[in-house]
Amino acid sequence: ILLSLFQSLQSLIHARTIPYFVAHICSHQPYPGILMEGNRIADTAAKQSICSLSSPTPWDSHSYFHQNAKALAQQFGIPKAEAAAIVQQCPTCSAHSTAIPSGVNPRGVGALSIWQMDVTRYPPFAAWKYLHIVIDTYSGFIYATPQRGEATK
What is the tens place of the pLDDT at every residue in 73-83? Predict the structure, then answer.
């Protein structure tokens, strides 16, 4: 369910004709109605998807997260050749390059092991003009929050 929602969202974003903004909404904040309703729908879909993967096989995990062969082999302790075969047989991944670009940035060997963080100013947010952006280097998960200052407590 969640993958189809993300694919629909991706299609809509690629077809856009005006600028857009994507934000993380904290569920316990007093934001107006439509924002919280969309957040509730996203949370419900994410919970259903995660709960359906109680003990995933490498095939199930890859069909959901589309991780590369190296990450799949490390996560499940399978040979790299077997992990590569799983990735090559995936219709979604075979349409895209799965190579990870090399560089100087470290990459975690597991989820939540190495994070990179940056703060940038975004004046249109008025009092909440600082964006704190954190990226999990293993999965590429991006988490951004608006803040009132550059440092948080």
Answer: 988 899 999 99
Q: Do residues 111 and 139 make contact, with C-beta atoms less than 8 angstroms apart? A: yes
Biggest distance spanned by C-alpha atoms of the chain: 52
Is 64 in contact with 3 (CB distance < 8 Å)?
yes
In sequence order, the 6+-apart residues with CB closer than 8 A to the CB of 136 are: 108, 111, 112, 114, 115, 143
The percentage of the chain sitting over the pLDDT mark of 90, rounded to a whole number, equals 6
AA letter at 85: A
CATH of domain 56-96: 1.10.10.200
Strand duo 142-147 + 115-121: pairing = unpaired
Q: Give me the residue spans of the domains in the chain.
A: 1-52, 56-96, 115-147
Tell me if 150 sits within 8 A of 141, measured CB to CB. no
